[in-house]
Amino acid sequence: MADAAQVDAQSSVLEIGGGLGILSEVLAKRGAAVSVVELDRGLLPLLQERLSSYPRVSVVEGDALAMRLEELVSPRDGKVVANLPYYVTSPLLARCLELGYDQIVVMIQKEVADRLKAAPATREYGSLTVLASYYGKVERLFTVPPNRFYPSPDVESAVVRIVRHPKVDSPPRLFSPLVRWAFRFRRKTLARALAEGSGMPVSKTADLLRQAGIDPERRGETLSTEEFIGLSENLEGLI
User: Fold this and answer.
1) What CATH superfamily classification does 12-164 receive?
2) Delimiting residues of CATH 3.40.50.150 domain(s) in the chain
3) d(CA 115, CA 113)
4) Would you say residue 53 has pLDDT above 90?
């Protein structure tokens, strides 16, 4: 994981979920400036003791979802390298993507890794897929079997790397809401999903979709990232 993120003495690294500090120490030995966020107070003394000899490593207690991560490591030139806690993988990954970290190398559940690489109109395709493809290039590097952990989990894991697109801007204002509505009501037509999300009549959302060149009878899960971008730009000021 450290190799995949090209971590060296010039790197600034954010690690979420330091655990026992095994990955943290690998990063520290490369001379990187590392900020390790850990929520479990029971692990903090062990983590702090293990990393005490590395002056460029700081251990921060707290919930990564409630913290201003960008104040720990600047997204402009920072990297995220972490074994993400599985129960909050999706919101943490979405947060790091939206903040704009240059590289993200994380171990996650294999099923989430499958979602990141999924194609439109498949069961795995979802809002996280669209968000990840908007911000960067997603690569699945390798899988990790359950017997590599103690205790062994019931799921396989995978390490993925997301490299931010060189010139990606903040998405259009409606991009995130449209994606969220489309997948919250993924069994409904796009016209109905947008109506549910926006509070507008179905007849109105259907008209807006036709004006944008999108068949209102399509389901949101069939739209590509590019179509979501185009739709959000076309609907600007109308929703």
Assistant:
1) Vaccinia Virus protein VP39 (3.40.50.150)
2) 12-164
3) 5
4) yes
Tell me: pLDDT of 149 over 90.
no
pTM score, whole prediction? 0.91
Residue 25 to residue 85: CA distance in whole angstroms: 18
**Comma-separated ranges of CATH 1.10.8.100 domains in the chain:** 175-234
CA distance 199 to 162: 35
Which among 121, 100, 125 is positioned nearest to 111, based on CA atoms? 125
Helix, strand, or coil (residue 151): coil
pLDDT at 133: 96
Sheet holding 78-83, edge to edge: 57-61, 33-38, 12-16, 78-83, 103-109, 157-164, 136-144
Q: List Cα–Cα distances, 167 to 75, 100, 136, in angstroms.
A: 14, 11, 10
What ranges in the chain are assigned the alpha helix state H? Answer: 22-29, 44-51, 69-72, 89-99, 110-116, 127-135, 175-184, 190-198, 202-211, 225-234
Superfamily of domain 175-234: rRNA adenine dimethylase, C-terminal domain (1.10.8.100)
